[in-house]
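Technical annex B. To support the medicinal chemistry partners, we prepared a structural model of the target in complex with NAP, based solely on the information shown next.
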Amino acid sequence: MKPALLVATKGWDVESWARRIRPLLPDRPILCTDRAGIYHGADADLAEIHYILAWKPLQETLDRLPSLRVIFSLGAGVDHIFALTRLPDVPIVRIVDPDLTARMTEYVVWQVLHHQRLGPAYSAHQRERVWRDIDPPAAHQVSVGIMGLGVMGGSAARILVRLGFKVRSWTRSPKRMAGVESFHGAERFDAFLAGTDILVALLPLTPDTRGLIDLPLLRKLRRDGPLGGPILINAGRGGSHVEADIVAALRDGTLAGASLDVFQTEPLPADSPLWDLGNVVITPHVAAVSDPVALAGQIAGQIEAFERGEKLKNRVDPRRGY
Ligand SMILES: NC(=O)c1ccc[n+]([C@@H]2O[C@H](COP(=O)([O-])OP(=O)(O)OC[C@H]3O[C@@H](n4cnc5c(N)ncnc54)[C@H](OP(=O)(O)O)[C@@H]3O)[C@@H](O)[C@H]2O)c1
């Protein structure tokens, strides 16, 4: 038998991952937690585990894996792993996959076009049976500022450039991408914001990005753009924004609209004022879902390559936290 692996997901359908992985790695034990992330079997079985495929793994599960060699995050983000207090000194690998990237690109482009084409106004007119033309600005008149030009942000940026939007990016390190005006670091942040009509957040959640999108930041966005005020789209992590500030900004006109896929508390509580605000699109953290059908093959391939002595791809840098 080859080294065993554990699928440990909290809130996800564990078996849908195990079902896909088993035929790809047939000659090794594949154990699963329950839907709450708890493993009910013997410690002796866990002692054989070399690999964990994890989404929001429990600390007590990781603590029971003395032979662990690699942690595979089942999502692109790894904040759910760094949120733990004790991490074994093993590589952490995240998902980078065309399927996941395409899904996020669709979401971002969908929401940018929704606001640029005045979707909220036309939906309101339709509900009231009003026939009134209001001209949307052309894409080239709208500036989309993307915070985080990584795998996801980079892909969305390329499509938005093709559609004719003015695209700018803000990152930690310098970036160059055709058609994109790049800004990086704290010194250039205000200049980036000052020219942004639609702010797209595709940042990982780290100590540096936690609570970053607050009222003072939103007040620095371009106020005289063609959409009647700035728009916020957050598909990164809810921990990067301050929801009470977004509500205040929508109420006082600092923001003209928002599309939020991620929230400080998920599910978004039923009493959140966001549900009732006009010009807000709420989706339940589905911008880019990890599909086991698309992703299991990549993880199985990485495990086999690792055992052949090859380097793991898409390793996370623990010092950066992403
Ligand atoms: N809503 C969903 O369904 C969903 C699905 C998948 C992923 N996500 C989220 O999307 C995030 C991005 O994914 P990805 O694959 O594009 O990640 P990535 O390739 O690691 O890119 C992250 C980008 O953020 C920038 N960044 C990080 N910290 C920063 C800081 N303090 N200041 C400025 N820029 C900073 C990085 O800058 P450098 O290039 O300079 O390093 C990089 O450009 C994930 O971490 C996850 O949280 C959400």
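Notes passed to the chemistry partners:
Residues 75-77, 104, 148-153, 170-173, 202-206, 208-209, 235-237, 261-262, 285, 287-288, 322 surround NAP (CB under 6 Å).
The chain has a mean pLDDT of 97.
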